[in-house]
Amino acid sequence: MKLRLATLLAALCAATVSHADSLPKPGDYYLISRDHAGKFIGSHKLFKNESADTKRVSYCGNEYFVRDSSVAWTELEAEFGHIVHVEFNFGKGWRPICANPEREVTLADLGITMDAREVLAGLSTAPSTASRLATIGAMFRTSVFEKSESGLGM
């Protein structure tokens, strides 16, 4: 039991550290959704370097690398009537640098024929932090169930 608990805690700490690495820093670029009053709704990070799960795109003439789910998200945010911009974190706030990114890059531009909702529902290949945590939680619940079935209890 102690080994499983230690494994669970280590996995949760690793997930937290990877999430902390994704916090916005000065110099970062994000797709940001706001309501009509300017209130923040949500965001997706844009990358300046390529990785295995990103694709090269251009927003307002600037090159970035983006995940499929981020493009799907911009499409849905615009459909919901939210205002989406590419914004730059200059250290003391955010500066909009490109309006209507959902018009600049679409899922079709990336060669994706799925609907944006399907991409965001997890039908794309990139795992999320939430799904990693769900897997860890399921592992813990399974081990507790196995112990109670064997008569060891908690």
Task: Please describe what this structure looks like.
By secondary structure, the chain is of the alpha+beta class. The chain is built from five helices and six strands. The strands form two sheets. The protein has a four-stranded antiparallel sheet. Strands 3-4 form a two-stranded antiparallel sheet.
Report strand order across the widest sheet.
2-1-5-6
What is the succession of H and E elements? HEEEEHEEHHH
pLDDT average, as an integer?
A: 78
| Main sheet specs | 4 strands, antiparallel
The poorly predicted ranges are 5-20, 124-128, 142-150
Number of helices: 5
Number of strands: 6
Shape: globular
Strand content: 15-25%
Distance between the termini: 9 Å
Helicity range of the residues?
40-55%
Oligomeric state of the chains? single chain
Radius of gyration, in angstroms, nearest whole number: 19 Å
Class per helix and strand makeup: alpha+beta
